Amino acid sequence: MEVMTWAFIGTIIGAIASIATTIITNWSSYLIVRQTKGYERKEIANTFQRQTIIELQVELLEYIRSCYQAYLYDCNQFKKTGEWGGKLPEDLNTKNRELSAKTSILIQRISNNELRDNLLVLKDSCARCTLSKKKSEADELYAILSEDYQKSNELLGMVLRSTYQ
């Protein structure tokens, strides 16, 4: 074979090798970018969950306090009148409804199903305690509420810590 033929074959092989190298490099770059975007999406989701959980911890505490204030108000009224479950003062009632709504919104933002279900049970216990028609029922529900709050708080902390990993 002549030198020209070998030169032509060498040029073709070099071009094919160059094209293959470019394809491999571009494919690797694409995979790295795709993986990076996946990590970024995951980090954005984790950041959102962290912020939501931290905000929920504060609002949940305020909501539980509000329910406890309603419970104490009913206890005081029961001592005075002998009747349970009268109308709450307007400011306490408004505060309780607003905190209930805010807590509901934050609970729905939680991605962990176990935590969300646990918080919904807690919120339901709080509402039932506030709306109970008998003192004995309210006392029982308040005891359950206190226990549920402790469990929910532990689970909130566990899920919050998991978002940092």
Model description:
The chain is rod-shaped. Helix 1 (3-81) runs parallel beside helix 3 (113-131) and helix 3 runs antiparallel to helix 4 (135-162). With 165 residues, the protein is mainly alpha-helical. It has a domain at 49-162. The chain has 4 helices and no strands.
* Number of helices, where a helix is a run of at least 4 consecutive DSSP H or I residues: 4
pLDDT below 50 for ≥5 consecutive residues: which ranges? none
- Largest sheet entry: none
H/E element sequence: HHHH
Give the overall shape, derived from the CA principal axes.
Answer: rod-shaped
Cα distance spanning the termini? 64 Å
Number of strands: 0
- Beta-strand content estimate: under 5%
C-alpha-based Rg, rounded: 31 Å
Residue-averaged pLDDT = 92
Q: Roughly how much helix do the residues carry, as a percent range?
A: over 70%
Which structural class should the secondary elements be placed in? mainly alpha
Which key features would you list for this structure?
165 residues, mainly alpha, 88% helix, 0% strand, rod-shaped
List the helices and strands and how they pair.
Elements (H helix, E strand, L loop, with lengths): L2 H79 L8 H19 L4 H19 L3 H28 L3
Helix pairs in contact: 1-2, 1-3, 1-4, 2-3, 3-4
